[in-house]
Amino acid sequence: MRRRTLTALAGALTLSLVTGCAQGDSTGTSSNTVAYWLWDANQLPAYQACAKGFEQENPGLKVKITQLGWSDYWTKLTAGFIAGTQPDVFTDHIQNFGQFVDLKVLEPLDDLGIKDSDYQPGLAANWIGKDGHRYGAPKDWDTVALFYNETMVKDAGLTADRLNTLSWNPKDGGTFEKAIAHLTIDRKGKRGDEPGFDKNNVKVYGLATNGGGFGDGQTQWSNFAASAGWSYLDKPRWGTRYQYDSETFQSVIQWYFGLAKKGYMAPLSDYNIQSNQANTQVAAGKAAAAFDGAWMISTYAGFQGKDIKTALTPVGPTGRRATMMNGLADSITKASRNKEGARKWVAYLASDACQTVVGRHGVVFPATEAGTEAAVAAYEKKGVDVSAFTEPVADKKHFRTFSYPIASYSADMTALMAPAMEDIYGNGKPVSSLNQTNDQINLILSQ
Q1: Which distant-in-sequence residues (6+ apart) come within 8 Å of 75 by Cβ?
Q2: How do residues 17-38 score in pLDDT, each as one tens digit?
Q3: Which listed residue, 122, 223, 437, 445, has the most CB atoms within 10 A of its CB?
């Protein structure tokens, strides 16, 4: 659900909109139809159910839902903004929010009466632009936890309680690194913390990889950096300076990718965004554990022949745990041909009426408290414990939750940070190289 967007069309989008090339009607719209796009196939049935409820409350209005795969979704949406074939309403990601606001392709939603207090903390505020206008209605949220193979953990002599009390630091990795090392097994049966362990011939890695993490590291290094006290930007939202040149951040990155050098974490060469993500590595028995998001709960729970459990992110040097708390929203395109119908649909999507229905499907945590409660109950009915994801939201004393970095030119930041992080991870480039990358990003941000 929360995978990477393609940034290749960002420049074309900017040029076309600046020169006034976006023309035409939005796809499938009419006075009685609202075209709605989403990317998650698992959520399609839930929103089809919401559409039925909406149509019953709004006689004469129909919702046409289009579901596209993640990469195709953003490619087609970007092209749609240029050609004028965009939908009326679409599922928006905070990663692209800043770019879309800067390009003025979103319709303000100030008149919908969205209140921060109606949703989980921080979700509504994240969708306010630099101009003070709202451009997204809260839809759902997710946090990150450690998925692990219970059989492998038991075979290593570890317990659920042990995994939920791990701590880490960038000097020696703390008890977290010790646990990951012990879960690692080479091809001769030696564990990572035993004499004779061969880091170049590993059969099972203690920790799977989701790649270099681009500039946000959501399911890679973000929980470590945040629990060490670091922040992406100088301000929580719409910051003016990125902080990848921080000594704290670079010490975290050096330690984190150092796990791969020691043989405890799968190397970058094992990762493929299309075919071999962290969940695939765990499913294949090539990794004992993986940091991943709540949107992957059903995927891990569905692995045949494997009992997958979850644990909290480890305690960091600040004495607190940390996890990104990301949230999607529904946005209306500025070129929508049915803005009245689109507004009604977005208001319904953001209401308890719809979010409770979505929650009952047990595929995501909806943004309202009632929706979240319905989701937790649905997961419990399936026998899935989701407390590792919900506890960080409820316990602010012991957890730090933080957002994806919200700033202008986010596509440019991602385009620069992606190869920079992969060079450090895969090619052994020094973390100090991030100083130059950070300067380049901040130069763009200052424009």
Answers
A1: 6, 9
A2: 433 333 334 455 567 999 999 9
A3: 223
